[in-house]
Automatic annotation (TrEMBL):
Pfam families: p450
Chain residues that bind heme: C206
Domain of life: Eukaryota
Protein's organism: Gossypium lobatum
Keyword presence, Calcium: no
Protein name as catalogued: Cytochrome P450
Record's signal peptide: none
Coiled coil: none
GO function term, MF aspect, one: oxidoreductase activity, acting on paired donors, with incorporation or reduction of molecular oxygen
Family: Belongs to the cytochrome P450 family.
Record keywords, A-Z: Heme, Iron, Metal-binding, Monooxygenase, Oxidoreductase
Cofactor: heme
Matches recorded under InterPro entries: Cyt_P450, Cyt_P450_CS, Cyt_P450_E_grp-I, Cyt_P450_sf
Length: 268
């Protein structure tokens, strides 16, 4: 991990330096992406609360890469595992994507709003497999009585979103993967519904929620639309290992092994 982080730091540092050099030579400085926006606040003559150093820019980009890649890839892996265990759900989501995009066109970000079953699959995946099972800790600002429990001031509090998503008092058949439950429910994961809080809520909600929403939906949809999928090594849907490796994030204990096959086009 340390070696990987060192290599990533080198790559990002070189990338930022190249962009800085490009901006120095550019006749017109047009803000094209996040890096351009950050670099607008760096350099000589930039002072005040909005000024930042190139080193801070590098750290911000690194945080986006590490936080974004680990969480999104894990969510997509869990979603694929659940869909491979439920061929009916796999069939439904693939048919929906094909119906919206057609057999030849690639899935685009603008298609996401027209894919309700795909959205339901993602919600159900995040309910059962929140990538971060415990939200970032909070501290009680004052002595508090909550549901019969006394919480002293300065007590560190962790919110267990893994348990919330499997609460039988909230969810019918909570351990089952049923995307359909979200087709008739307005519950979303954007911090307004406390039954589903994979990204947290309030002022400390995950800053990457918008990015994660787009990347996970587009990534999963692209994998499903581009290929048909099979299990290897004599594994069948019933024997896919769904045990978790618990840490700061929750990944599959045994990584999913799925074989992409050339997609068979519907002749109709």
């Amino acid at each position: 991990m340390v070696r990987d982080m060192g290599r990533a730091l080198e790559i990002v540092s070189n990338f930022v330096k190249e962009r800085v050099d490009e901006l120095k030579l550019a006749e017109e400085q047009e803000t094209k992406d996040l890096l351009d926006a950050l670099l607008e606040h760096t350099g000589e003559g930039k002072q005040g609360p909005d000024s930042i150093s190139n080193q801070i820019v590098i750290i911000i980009i690194l945080e986006m890469f590490f936080a974004g890649s680990e969480t999104t890839s894990s969510t997509i892996e869990w979603a694929m595992a659940e869909l491979l265990r439920k061929p009916d759900s796999m069939k439904k989501v693939k048919e929906e994507i094909n119906r919206v995009t057609g057999p030849q066109r690639k899935v685009e970000e603008s298609d996401i709003d027209n894919l309700p079953y795909l959205q339901a699959v993602i919600k159900e995946t995040l309910r059962l497999h929140p990538v971060v099972p415990l939200l970032l800790p909070r501290n009680a600002m004052r002595d508090t009585d909550y549901m019969g429990y006394f919480i002293p001031k300065e007590t560190q509090i962790f919110v267990n979103v893994w348990a919330i998503g499997r609460d039988p008092e909230t969810w019918e058949d909570p351990l089952a993967f049923k995307p359909e439950r979200f087709l008739v429910s307005k519950i979303d994961y954007k911090g307004q519904n406390f039954e589903l809080l994979p990204f947290g809520s309030g002022r400390r909600i995950c800053l990457g929620i918008s990015l994660a929403h787009k990347v996970v939906h587009l990534g999963l949809a692209t994998l499903l639309h581009s290929f048909d999928w099979e299990l290897g090594n004599n594994i069948c849907p019933e024997t896919i290992d769904m045990n978790e490796r618990v840490g700061i994030t929750t990944r599959k204990l045994i990584p999913l092994e799925a074989i992409p096959k050339k997609r068979v086009m519907d002749a109709r």
